[in-house]
Specification:
Length: 286
């Protein structure tokens, strides 16, 4: 029996409907959640992502603005802009679109954003809180993955989860969130020997390697839940994931498509973090 497709677009729309009501209630209290995005340079993919985020905020009633800075912007100029936003009371969330030009240190930028406004969930303080299982801003893609598993009733506790990829943005944090949910977690990566030995034992398989269709049916345990984080553009312009969807869907119990899988959930959780920031800023008077 073919796998159930986890529709991230549909789930995201449902969650955003609830967020719209929450934002409306906050506005009645005089609080309008406000996200500011900074983009440095003219990368077309980054501009497309930023436009998607701006559209999503408008749909939920969240105020948003985009600060565009040229690729010649110095690191000092960018940090100064971030510090200005850190002290701007009307701004609840700050997101600096990655990647940045080579002359700007991404980690320095991430650490400059106030942890109280770090709606991307990348600041070391928020990462530390995530590791400890404390309430914090969670990285948006991993947060979205956990939300998908919960929404489709996929058991995490006691299951073996295998994460292929170890990036700071997806691989490492999603493994930690799965561990926080009492899964047994195995990390695999480019230097893992006998990859299939691990993937075929996974009840939950997270593919985040950035290579098209590298995970096929022979890599998958019968009945596994497959979350495909990859977004790879083919020669014909179409998008495909890290998982060969057609073959994997015949063996898995649940699977995410590409597109309309993890991607919409990433933006949805960014909105959730922005609302959380607005409520927190109100509570602490920041």
């Amino acid at each position: 029996m073919p796998a159930t497709v986890i529709d991230g677009k549909e789930l995201g729309q449902t969650l955003r409907g609830d967020m719209t009501k929450e934002v409306s209630q906050l506005k009645e209290q005089g609080i309008t959640p406000h996200l500011t995005v900074i983009i440095v340079g003219d990368d077309p993919a980054s501009k497309s992502y930023v436009n998607g985020k701006k559209k999503a905020t408008a749909q939920t009633g969240i105020a948003s603005d985009v600060i565009e800075m040229p690729s010649s912007t110095s690191e000092a100029e960018l940090l100064e802009k971030i510090n200005d936003l850190n002290h701007e009371e009307s701004v609840h969330g700050i997101l600096v679109q990655l990647p940045l030009p080579d002359h700007i240190n991404e980690q320095t930028v991430i650490e400059t954003i106030s942890p109280h406004k770090d709606v991307d969930g990348f600041h070391p303080i928020n990462i530390g809180n995530m590791m400890a299982g404390n309430d914090t801003f969670l990285p948006c893609t991993p947060y979205g993955i956990i939300k998908m598993l919960h929404s489709y009733g996929i058991q995490i506790k006691g299951k073996h989860a295998v994460v292929i990829g170890r990036s700071n943005i997806v691989g490492k944090p999603v493994g930690q969130l799965l561990l926080n949910e009492h899964a047994t977690v195995t990390y695999c990566h480019s230097r893992t020997h006998n990859l299939t030995d691990f993937t075929t034992s996974a009840d939950i398989l997270i593919a985040a390697v950035g290579k098209p269709n590298v995970i096929r049916a022979e890599h998958i345990k019968q009945g596994a839940a497959i979350i495909d984080v990859g977004i790879n553009r083919q020669d014909d312009g179409s998008l495909t994931g890290d998982v060969d969807f057609a073959s994997a869907a015949e063996k898995a119990s649940y699977i995410t498509p590409v597109p309309k899988g993890v991607g919409p959930m990433t933006i949805t959780m960014l909105l959730q973090n922005t609302i959380k920031a607005a409520k927190g800023l109100s509570r602490f008077g920041r």
